[in-house]
Amino acid sequence: MNTVKIPAFVFIQDYQGEILVIETEAGRKIKVTPDHPLLVATADGFGRWIPAKELRVGDMIAVIRRIDYQSSRIDLPLGKAIDTLRKNFAKVLTYSDYVQLREKISKSGFQSLNDKELNLVRVFCRLSYSKIAKLTGIGTTTVWKFFRGETSYGRELIIEVLKRAFPKDIERNRLFVLLENGSIDTFKYPESVTEEVVKWISFVLSEGHIQSSRVKRGVVDFISVSQSKNGKLLREFLEISKQLFGIELTQKNERDWNINSRAFCTFVSVYLDLQPCSREKRKIMPRWILNLDKDLMRTFLRWFISLDAEIGTQIALAQASRDVIDKISFMLLRFGIFPCLGEQRKYASNTPERKRETYHLLYIHGKENLKKFYEKIGLERDPPLKFRTKLETKSSGDHLFKFLIDLKYLSEIPKSLNMSWDIFEERYGNIYEVARRTGKITLNAANKLYELLKEDCREFGVKNLRVLDYLEKIRDSDILYLRIRKIQRVSYKGKLIDFTVPNLQNFIGGRGGIVLHNTLTAFIGIISELLSMARKGELEDFVYAIYVSPLRALDNDIYRNLKVPLEEIRELAKKKGIELPEIRHAVRTGDTSTSERQKMLRKPPHILITTPETLAITLVAPKFREKFRSLRWVIVDEIHSLVESKRGVHLSLSLERLEHLVGRPFVRIGLSATINPLEEVAKFLVGYKDGKPRYCLIVDTTYAKKMDLHVMAPVPDLIYTPFGVINEEMYKYLCELIRKHRTTLIFTNTRSGAERVAFRLRQLLPLYVEEIEKDDVAAHHGSLSRTVRHDVEEKLKSGELRAIVSSTSLELGIDIGYIDLVVQLGSPKSVTRAIQRVGRAGHRLGEVSKGVFICSDRDDAVEVAIMLKEAMSGHLDRAHMPRNALDVLAQHIAGMAIEQKWNVEEAYELVRRAYPYKDLDRKDFERVLRYLSGAYSQMEMYKVYGKIWYDPDEGVFGRRGKLARAIYSQNVGTIPDEVRVRVRTLGGKKLGSIEEEFLERLMPGDRFVLGGKVYEFVKTVRGFTAVVMP
Predict the structure, then answer these.
(1) Among 892, 900, 882, 885, CA closest to 972
(2) Could you tell me if 840 and 745 are in contact, meaning their C-beta atoms sit under 8 angstroms apart?
(3) H or E element: which one contains 364?
(4) How far apart are CA 587 and CA 684, in angstroms?
(5) Shortest CA distance to 466 belongs to which of 545, 384, 427, 410?
(6) How many CA atoms lie within 13 A of 29 on its CB side?
(7) Which helix (H) or strand (E) holds 431?
(8) How many other C-beta atoms lie within 10 A of the C-beta of residue 121?
(9) C-beta separation of 328 from 283 below 8 A
(10) How far is the CA of 152 from the CAs of 39, 118, 129, 161, in angstroms?
């Protein structure tokens, strides 16, 4: 199971009805609505999603067994903590205040300072009024009045004292706080989270009490800690307090110590997110602790449990705070340690009165669990004898982890190993008998069975055994199944939180980490409206929504992400006795077969997913265009990639023609993460009407995406190093980057470059990295067939690939799974493209996008360095859209002529509604009409003939000839034409295409690379197709 951090949709709505409270063994608990699906164990080991209302006591549901997630950067809120001090105390001084004061003294001397500035000097000197009075012989009251500006008596003496005491420098991380009574507090703060910080906060959370002020809100009066059993950790805590913060604790008695500085306690409560606690308000563990890296988290757990847990044959932790227990539980799961949870009512030990309170419990028991804890986390005290004895004894019969198992797996063992039943019973009898009686196998038994089978398989030469595959699944699984102990059905009225993770990932929730399933995903608003229409019987055979994207890969991705939720919605409605018509969605691009297009004509999709070129073609399809009459929404994805090219100009005219066809406005939605300027792109999307931009709502969700960018050269000297050496070193560096990361996406600037790099990496990676095979690397670009591209995309999303090499086809917003590194070979040629490509890594909310740019010559190095500087500054390339493109206009006039007979004035007004043509000159428009009508007879020598008829006197034009539609459909678009030769295998599998010029050089037996794989050319057959074999 891959764990990634991604954004999610959270919907909060009013709810009144039944909810289910489900409790399992080991203290796991979840509250869900009756229809929410949970994963239930099945004998084949895969599990099945079942609505909560169908569950029964005794069913086994999936919970998380371990969860290894990536650590996040921790930024402590220094500004917020200082602001809190300034709000509640007289004066707060930082290092910058000290530098400013020191510079003024250096320039003008102490005599130039006024009373307030001299008081600041006093603060930095850490001199109290009484101390200055003692050093000068002046009365304390007079000194107090002097610094208040009420007297100048003794000024020279006081300045002399301050001059001698003023420090030459102070620590940059030290704060000085002036209290209302003139006293001074000073302390240091750690600038980042270190091991000492983690130890200190672990001690405070375990043994401390943070007391908020009853007089002044936002102020913390004191922090007290209490410890008598572990003197070693107490002494280390006191030393850390002194070294890290510069504070001394006051000892109250043998076991209790106090931090009495209100300024420090207030600061640290905000800076380290230590919330005050009381009998009514339990401890809350700071959220950032869950983002610690593993080493620091290990230190935190080791200290906390050593201080607060009872350790014997098990480790037991009891806390009044459920939050602390829940977070400790998740931290332990990160190390693969599975804790049990519980509750207990008992008398509080820290209150004088006898009062029963609820305590939340966490247990770590079982030899394997305890052993894992001791090896991976450890203790900060000598483990007691009972604990050591438990680790050394044989595993007991305490088997919490159980899995359903199909007996046929075990029954096939004697036959597969050619073993008699007597020998089978002798070696496997105990395990088999328990499994036969219960239908379950414990994890300990599964481990024992696995080792026995591996041993027997080696002895008998057996390679494939189904039960081994199942046992491996159990041993390596990140989830396990626990029996439901209790199901409560309760009435609930209040807020309901609907948590939805995009792209159909599952998630964990509840107490202890129960595996949960999505209920909905993208297109929420449109799907909701279509469902409403369906229930009212208003959903007819029309296209209601069009999704336009610049890449076919994006289209296919959207199709996949819509398919599952639409099917699940119908299934849920059916269970409630509601028959909903199917909400159809389909992809229509150049890859779509004729049979599929015919199906769409008979049963049109309610949501059509397409490209700009295919949309233009469907506008002249006489039957299919009628399906657009009820259109309500058009979504243009990755709009930034269209705005700057003639493809965008082409689309803008198609949208205006579409609106003319529909006969009324529809909602236009543009999506992009890298747009500049927003206002211009908005005008491009919505167009003009009556000379003014149509209304557009701009939703700017721009945020500072964290990026980790590097410019690298394969060798130290790019000038005198031979190209062959540079090239070889580049591939070695690439192999090293791929080895260090889970999935690496490599961008080149050409398709041929992508093929070359993929092929070389498939050769080198298995040699440099043992765990990587050649099939773990793939190429992806537009010249590959639809089947090959889809196969690569699916492998990438499922995490099967370690590296993928692409030209531009994976640049935009296709959901390509988790990628932790993007490598760009050479310059991407624009800041926006650089950000877009690097953004494919860490493509989740809150994660860092990591990119490495490898430059093999000086020009690229300089260009990339400047681009990355602009990218880190948040500057995007300004979009420059083509205006009044007459070649694109000619195409659309030809298409419009096919649709109907047009009045020139009406057509001219329609064209000018498209933003790129808002300033189109009428004369230019008429020249294009004359050109298309063949009015320029001299063009016939270039075989340019009329495509439309045009009557300038009547001011009308229309189609000419029966072949007008065919000519238009075959020549539509602005992507330059290339003569492509289809490539297929001897078995008929389509692989992609190559250039005609390349085919001309091929002879039978020649080998070439396509999709990163080597193929041998066999022959050319009719239909301009090259036949190859692997």
Answers:
(1) 892
(2) yes
(3) strand 356-364
(4) 25
(5) 410
(6) 12
(7) helix 421-438
(8) 24
(9) no
(10) 80, 12, 15, 15
Confidence band of 873 (pLDDT split at 50, 70, 90): low
What gap in Å lies between CA 400 and CA 392, rounded to an integer?
20
Instruction: Look at residue 604 and tell me whether its pLDDT is greater than 50.
Output: yes
Greater confidence (558 vs 370) lies with 370
- Structure-token pair, residue 501: 């993770």
Domains of the chain: 9-64+480-516 (2.170.16.10), 91-178 (1.10.260), 195-392 (3.10.28.10), 404-476 (no CATH), 524-693 (3.40.50.300), 707-872 (3.40.50.300), 886-971 (1.10.10), 980-1029 (no CATH)
Instruction: Find how far residue 300's CA is from the centre of its chain.
Output: 26
Which has more pLDDT, 297 or 50? 297
Cis omega (within 30 of 0) on the bond before 677? yes
Q: With 0-12 CB in 10 A as exposed, 13-18 as middle and 19+ as buried, what is 548?
A: buried
Give the number of other Cβ atoms within 10 Å of residue 582's Cβ.
12
Q: Tokens 């004729």 map to which residue?
A: 594
Q: Which of 872, 914, 871, 919 shows the shortest CA–CA distance to 892?
A: 914
Q: What is the mean pLDDT of residues 170-189?
A: 92
Q: How far apart are CA 387 and CA 381, in angstroms?
A: 12
Q: What is the 3-state secondary structure (H, E, C) of 824-855?
A: EECCCCCHHHHHHHHCCCCCCCCCCEEEEEEC
Q: Where are the alpha helices (DSSP H) in 139-293?
A: 140-147, 155-165, 195-207, 231-240, 262-271
Task: Find, among 133, 8, 987, 1012, the residue nearest to 501 by Cα.
Answer: 8
- How far is it, in rounded angstroms, from Cα 102 to Cα 168? 8
* 1027 alpha-carbon distance from chain centroid: 42
pLDDT in tens, 746-799: 998 888 888 888 888 888 888 877 778 888 888 887 777 777 877 887 787 767
What does the buried/exposed string (b/e) look like for 951-976 if buried means 16 or more CB atoms within 10 Å of the residue's CB?
A: eeeeebbbbbeeebbeebbeebbbee
Helix axes 723-740, 751-768, angle to 10 degrees: 70
Of 614, 625, 680, 672, whose CA–CA distance to 647 is shortest?
Answer: 614
Tokens of 291: 């983002």
Task: Give the DSSP letter string of 752-797.
Answer: HHHHHHHHHHHHHHHHH-TT--GGGEEEE-TTB-HHHHHHHHHHHH
- In whole angstroms, what is the distance from residue 781 CA to residue 553 CA? 10
Q: Binning pLDDT at 50, 70 and 90, where does residue 843 land?
A: low
Question: What long-range pairs does 992-995 form, CB within 8 A, spacing at least 24?
Answer: 992/783, 992/784, 992/785, 992/788, 993/783, 993/785, 994/783, 994/1026
Question: Strand, coil or helix: what is 278?
Answer: coil
DSSP string, 120-158: HHHHHHT--HHHHHHHH---HHHHHHHHTTS--TTHHHH
CA distances from 145 to 120, 150, 177, 694 (A): 15, 5, 20, 68
DSSP H stretches of helix in 218-340: 231-240, 262-271, 294-308, 322-334
Beta strands 980-985 and 1025-1029: pairing type?
parallel
pTM above the 0.85 mark? Answer: no
Query: What's the rounded Cα separation, in Å, for the pair 873 and 834?
Result: 13
